[in-house]
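INFO  loader      accepted 1 record
INFO  loader      residues=353
INFO  predictor   begin
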Amino acid sequence: MKSKDLAQLLGVSPATISLLLNHKPGLSQTLRERLTQQIIELGYGDMLMEHGNGTKRKNRQPQDSSRPSIIYLSYRSKDSEWEDMYAFYSGVLEGAQQEAQETDCNLLVLYRQGESDLARAVRRAGDVLGLIVASDDITEDMLQELNALGLPVVFIDAFDPTQAVNAVNVDNRQSFYIIVDYLKKLGHRELGFVSSGWETGSAEERRISFRRALKDHHLRDKKEYYFVVGRDKGPMDTSVLEEQFRSIEDMPTALLAENDKEAVRTIMALRKVGYRVPEDVSVVGFDDNPISRVSDPLLTTVRSSRHRIGRECVALIMRLNRLEHTNTVRQPMKIAISTELVERDSVADRTQA
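INFO  predictor   done
INFO  writer      dumping tokens
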């Protein structure tokens, strides 16, 4: 996210954000603390640790070479559009930083695309306890590279059932059960799903969880109620969704989206083809990212604790290190973090009709 966009989101001037991010005088301590807290809550805490050009880290605690380190390793693009706009992984990193500091560890960030020799980069880091890995998919080459390091590895939001790995995940099944239960109590019986079209483990897990929730609530699972936004389109392109919405005879009363970005895109597409939100079609997102709090209408969604996921990743690495010196069977561990429903304005109550 650019600093001017962050300023708009927080309702302050770009000059104010510039003073804050560059750690310059000119702001009261009260304002500085308030804005800092808001930025962290929005999941953009990493911006507080960067100079204006994003290359020089500032207010991070100095690395202590006498302390062990945990590496946060990203196989994702450093300039990922998803990262900039929705900050899931930035929030996880913030939580991991806090937990590492409280357990007397250094947290080092590596981007796989910037390291030609991962093993060498890890050796340079000194006493490394393990790695937290951010990746859209788990590949055999990736696992081979990581296993060769001989260190505990914990994946973020990994849902590949064919791979036995340690992971800390969002509890997708519980989340969609909560959403479908909420909608059914409000009188919705015809529910649809909007997916990004990207075949990642997390995306597939959310589609499966939606179908399970429909079955659990004895609601019809209609194939014509599944929509795809078109993964090769721009971030706010609605043309593919518009075409699908125009071609269907009867729309569902509510659409659940794979994430908040697709939920906002769904609202835009519905309006362009003549539907009102939420009067005609309700929309629910997933993740409670910043865009959900500025969309029109404000987006009902489920909140996933990105900071908690980051903290649990560090805690799991510490636990795996302790178990290394015991006779405990070394089976991979998966931790599921619950979500909570956030009610806003994008869902209509059909029981009052």
